[in-house]
Amino acid sequence: MGYNKSVAKDSALTAELKKAGYNLKAAAQEMGVGYQHLVNVARGRTHASQPVIDGFERLTGKPISEFVSGWVLVAPFRHHPGSQTKP
After folding, report:
1. Where is each HTH cro/C1-type domain found (predicted)?
2. Tens of pLDDT along 57-84?
3. Which has the closest alpha carbon to 76: 30, 41, 29?
4. Which CATH number fits the domain 7-74, given the four candidates 3.65.10.10, 3.40.190.170, 1.10.260.40, 3.30.365.10?
5. Which residues 6+ apart lie within 8 Å of 35 measured at CB?
6. How far is Cα 54 from Cα 71, in angstroms, rounded to an integer?
7. How many of the other CB atoms lie within 10 Å of CB of 75?
8. CA–CA separation, 4 and 86 (whole Å)
């Protein structure tokens, strides 16, 4: 799946959340994560945090592994000190 600039239109993760009634902003709020983190996961730019992994399954009833590249799940997300986004 890899990097996906047009996350709102083309991301499988975004499409599945939309089917469940959530846009990325609402889903991020429900998961308790920063919007930008969820966008970056959907685009394949960062590893998913545990709240995203768990929250996606809670909101959609499906495992996130079906909708993102394996790279996104290969390592845990690590919040960088000084970052302006919450994990």
Report:
1. 12-67
2. 999 999 999 998 888 888 766 655 555 4
3. 41
4. 1.10.260.40
5. 24, 25, 28
6. 17
7. 10
8. 21
